[in-house]
Automatic annotation (TrEMBL):
Record carries keyword Ligase: yes
EC number(s) from the headed UniProt entry: 6.1.1.2
Recorded family membership: Belongs to the class-I aminoacyl-tRNA synthetase family.
Cleaved signal peptide residues: none
UniProt: L-tryptophan binding residues: D138
Full protein name: Tryptophan--tRNA ligase
Record-level Gene Ontology MF annotations: ATP binding; tryptophan-tRNA ligase activity
Subunit structure: Homodimer.
PANTHER family: TRYPTOPHAN--TRNA LIGASE, MITOCHONDRIAL
Xref: PROSITE patterns: AA_TRNA_LIGASE_I (PS00178)
Short sequence motif named 'HIGH' region, residue ranges: 15-23
Motif 'KMSKS' region per record, residues: 198-202
Keyword annotations of the record: Aminoacyl-tRNA synthetase, ATP-binding, Cytoplasm, Ligase, Nucleotide-binding, Protein biosynthesis
Amino acid sequence: MAEEKRKRILSGIQPTGTPTLGNYIGAVRNWALLQSEYDCLYMIADLHALTVRQVPAELRRRTRELAALLLAVGIDPKNHVLFVQSHVPAHCELAWVLACNTQFGELSRMTQFKDKSAKHPDNVNGGLFTYPVLMAADILIYNADLVPVGQDQTQHLEIARVIANRFNGVYGETFTLPEGYVPAAGAKIMSLSEPTKKMSKSDTNANSFVLMTDDRDAIVRKFKRAVTDSDGQVRFDRENKPGVSNLMAIYSTFTGRTMEEIEAEFAGKGYGDFKLAVAEVTADALAPVQAEYGRILADKAYVDEVLKDGAARAARLANRTVSKVYRKVGLLQLDR
Ligand code: TYM
């Protein structure tokens, strides 16, 4: 019997600072896990990073570091594809066509655009506004079936579906409508110091996030300081106990235990014990990744080779879609 064709995944992460535990639990960890079931393309979204002012040399360094980190997490560049967005120009080509099929009003409603423009009022640029169109191009250009992301990206995924659907309606069946893959417990890891806010690497308070490269001491220190509440019970209640619930989500991810099991485990114990346990399982999970990261990053030539090969393979797929789209919208193409 012919083997069933595997479904395809595309996801991306920006090279803007070291990824946090939020990036790891919400996305990157699942990227590695999903490789056994899907054909995966994972991308470093350097073009998206330009929507906020970057220090050029730093952006370049971080792009390579992030590639090494993704390899350390277990992304397998032989059986899957790891590449840098700007190395596949077809993303921008498709983004233009999609932008011409996306409404101003739709883009104006994006919460991330509103948040980021409020945060950087001196640089509300066109790229920030059309950011979701480029992201739609990233996904649709590979006809991805599944997009593993954290909760903050679900609105962007929704607009990608809207754009795909509209294009298919006008020009005929062209794009696959992508589905999101959002983890049950860790879709939104919250800040350790303000647990009603998302954990973010751009937070000015370094105690609010754990970085994927933090050592055990730093991890323990940050979890010890994590804001909880005064009722002293380890109980899952996002609304009334956001700090404790966030720590439980992290603990649940790394131990596989349910919220009920965690509540039973820490019944009658103080937050001190609980926080230490969360720190320990986090440090245990990150330690092997960090060891691999150091080893891989030391071999720049290998990382660059992976990215070169990834870009070539991604471009072959992407160029095919762009050709098809150009033909459908009526752009004259000469024989190549
Ligand atoms: P970025 O770089 O902000 O984040 C990468 C991934 O990490 C997830 N994430 C979180 N998950 C749980 N809790 C958190 N606190 C947390 N913080 C971040 C994000 O949801 C994301 O999945 N626009 C994207 C990059 C991108 C992309 C794409 C993603 C570009 N093109 C195409 C998917 C498909 C971004 O800025 O992610």
